[in-house]
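U., I forgot to send this yesterday:
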Amino acid sequence: MLLAGYAAGIAYGRSLHRDGWLYAGADVLRRAWTLYVVHIFLFVVFSAQVSYSATALDRSDYLDEIHLDVLAEAPYRAMLEALLLNFQPAYLNILPMYVVLLASFALVLPLLRRPWILLSLSAGIYLLTRTFGWNLPSWTDGGWYFNPLAWQLLFVIGAVLSQKIPMVRMNRTWVDAGAVIVVLVGLMLVWLVWPSDDVTARVPRVLARAVLMVDKEGLHPMRLLSILALTWLVARLIPQSATWLRGRWASPLVLCGQHSLPVFCTGIFLSFLGRLFMEAEDGFWAAQVVVNVLGAVALVGVGALSAWYRSKGRAKADLPSISHADNAKVT
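Result:
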């Protein structure tokens, strides 16, 4: 989401400065509409994939776990709520958030010229959301799994970072140290604290709540800090002029990043297929290797295929047009 905001800030910020708010906002809304159409297509195909697998393998728990059981209970209402983005099965709750954020970004696009105001407004909405538990309504539960009112802060931070704004003076050594500490604390939570079953008995209850309630839905401050810390460290360790970024080894990542939408959609389908394969195989680690290697190769292949189609279309567009007079000369 941070990278999405950064890319949106670059693309639509240029359009804003060049063509004005009306045209730039129209471009943002067109992109949001494209993502909405892709989400609906993804919903239909993924629902068919999971439903068929549940029927063929006699695993109704798949439908319960991914929250597709309501398709059997109230199919007409489920389709309507899916069109309204109020019904979001598991695996299908990321694009709706992105659609809402892009549509909202079209409204606040002029504030890119006043990035500190935009950032302050976004931070205020985030704090109010965390304080009062605001969220968009959902048909199947209390709210969206990825709360757009909270995650918008990360999107806006990315958009602001894409603009050339005067930075606050800071001691980079201290910021480096703080970023490293945040990352280490996050790794300790993931590897040592969260897997422990008796963490609530070993530490005070207040501390246990603090380390166990690092929610993803509302973008917990610890998650926000860890993302920003990783971003800072990457920016410090990898210069923009690094030659390996334009080399052969980095090209698969570049392809996937340049064509993130088809790669993302393919990843949704492959993720469930990978789960089926891992459940069917006895060797856990062998299945992990097969799923990850084949999945990575497939995603890079989708990125390469998308790049080929884009270059193919551009090559045709770049061909010089031949007029009727030219045709006569050739004849």
